Predict the 3D structure of the following.
Amino acid sequence: MAYIVFISDHPDREFLREPNAKAHYAYLEASQHLILLRGGLVDEKTKSFFGGVLVLDLPSKEAVAEFVANDPFAKAGMQGEVRIERFNPAYCAPETRWREK
């Protein structure tokens, strides 16, 4: 089943991003077989990340919550609000259409 996850960073914990980024990206790369889509949320003014979105192929909401909790950013205390919802994809544009140029 597909689930979409919206993750907001704690606003006062940006200092945790750099020391945990390598482990975070390694965790995501090792989990590519579960990830249908992933990306960061970027503030228009500062161009800084303030969270992320995942679409995961996992059997339950509990499995998704466990996956998110095991992310190095979560373990470091960087994550704020996490919202998990069942997702029913209806259409997916070709990759080249939604990459920033």
